[in-house]
Amino acid sequence: MDVADAAFLASYCFARYWVPKFFPSLQPAFPDARYPDFASIETSAYQDRAREAAAAYLRIQHMGGISVSDRLCITDKDNKKERSLHHIQRDLTEVGDTYRASLLELSLRSSSQPRDQQRLAYHLSARADSLSFSAIPFDSDTKLSNRTLQVAMSLRLLEPILPFSENLPSTLRLQCPCCLSYGAGPQGDGAKQFLASKKDVDHWGYHAYRCYVAGNPARTSAHHDKIALIWFRLLRHAGFIVKYEPRSQVLNSEKRPDVMIEHNSGKKEHLDVRTCDPLLRGSGTPVFTRCSETPGTAADLGANFKNKSWKEIVELQGDTFIPLCHETPGFIGDAALHLLGRAAARFSSSNPQRNAFKTFWLTRLHVANIRGVAETIQQHMPFYADDPFSQRYTEEFHSHPSPFAEFFNQVPCASRPVSRNMRATFSESPGIVEGATPQIVFERECENDV
Ligand SMILES: [Zn+2]
Fold first, then answer.
1. What pLDDT does residue 384 have?
2. Separation of 220 CA from ligand 1 center, angstroms?
3. How remote is the CA of residue 119 from the centroid of ligand 1, in Å?
4. Given its phi and psi angles, is residue 348 left (phi above 0), alpha (psi -120 to 50 degrees) or beta?
5. How far away, in angstroms, is 175 Cα from ligand 1 center?
6. Could you tell me the distance, in angstroms and rounded to a whole number, from the CA of residue 347 to the centre of ligand 1?
7. Ligand 1: distance of its center to the CA of 75 in Å?
8. Cα(139) to centroid of ligand 1, in Å?
């Protein structure tokens, strides 16, 4: 409803501004939706539309407060330039999004269920990623398989990955295929002392991601390494001289940074990626409790851990160390974001190109993150045990039809063909000459570019 209100109200205000410019006699046909004069609405030629616009404005104002009025202005703050219809609609939609997010946060904070504290920590971290689910899937960096997308969306929506209901038989417990631990039955799920413990095998995939009994190689290969590779390509695209997992760069140590930047001065920057789980228990106050109070705590803890392990030995040889911390739901650490800003500044001195660079690579970092988490969970998917019907439940789940088209991956990009002048894509060639400033180049995408 609020999405439709935002679209309609934006269109109405846009028409109210532009139509009388060409047809001044139509000015009375568009009463101001912000201060509805009902007498003028009744005499308006478009009284139904004017009434609907006033009602939509009141509903959006109810969600957003007094700030909504400013969002309807067609001109910008300096009254120099008219804003686009899309821009106004996005501003109004943001009011509804913020309202719904605050309602969700409030309901999770006021819940007495301990599991909801974990969900709140997950939700607050995931809000830092607004790009992955709005990315257009047109290359291998931005595409997800049907199953991976299904798991990633369940995680984002805080929905269980396996069917969960308190009405399921109490004997129907989940078992982890790695540590063989049993979770609590459906009625005992989320007990406070049990939550995020080693044996908390849950329906949401949280245990499946963090279980390290078998070494969790999937978390390294499908998640950590994929993010490190994106960082390598990102920095190379910006024009840095970079090496991926170089050997023998830290004196008297076997350590290998994930990525290393070499400067002409001989100085080196060692970068190491850490994937941080905000849903751990830890010692003292549980990590998920701290993350639900202060989003980004898990990334800070990860950065502290990496700095302790790396910083001193790297600085002793005259180099610097940067921890690249990615929380599993989406939050990215300050040091990593600062490095991205540096890379964008090196890429171009123009603000629009810097922003394009940041959006391009942040999208890929976030998609690599959600893909890595979903694939790790899929490889450690718990199963129902100790119940004669367990096989049926598991099979039902695994044969659950995907809501997406089977051939989703083969669907060609909807935006092709594009004009040479209409679409800018990045040429991701390595910038091997330090100091050179790569530019955005215009390329025509081929039909089967995946
Ligand atoms: Zn396990």
1. 78
2. 16
3. 20
4. beta
5. 8
6. 44
7. 57
8. 34
Q: List the single range of 66-80, 177-191, 208-222, 373-387 with lowest mean pLDDT.
A: 66-80
Could you tell me the distance, in angstroms and rounded to a whole number, from the CA of residue 171 to the centre of ligand 1?
A: 19
**Nearest alpha-carbon partner for 321 in 339, 337, 297:** 339
For the chain, the structural domain boundaries read 2-102, 219-283+292-368
| Predicted TM-score of the model (pTM) | 0.78
Peptide bond before residue 417 is cis, with ω within 30 degrees of 0: yes
Distance from residue 208's CA to the centre of ligand 1 (Å):
6
Distance 329 CA to ligand 1 centre (A): 20
Residue 196 CA, ligand 1 centroid: distance in Å: 11
Low-confidence winner among 59-68, 121-130, 255-264 (lowest mean pLDDT): 59-68
State the pLDDT confidence band at 430, using cuts at 50, 70 and 90. very low
Residue among 173, 132, 101, 64 nearest 331 (CA):
132
User: What's the 422 CA to ligand 1 centre distance in angstroms?
Assistant: 50
Least confidently predicted of 264-273, 291-300, 381-390, 437-446: 437-446
Give the confidence band of 432 by pLDDT, cuts at 50, 70, 90.
very low
Give the per-residue pLDDT at 412. 43
What fold is seen in the domain 219-283+292-368?
Trna Endonuclease; Chain: A, domain 1 (3.40.1350)
- Residues within 5 Å of ion ligand 1, judged at the Cβ atom: 176, 178-179, 211
**CA 17 – ligand 1 centroid, Å:** 61
Token pair recorded at residue 246? 């170089």
- Name 194's Cβ contacts closer than 8 Å, sequence gap at least 6: 184, 188, 200
Ligand 1 center to 268 CA (angstroms)? 39
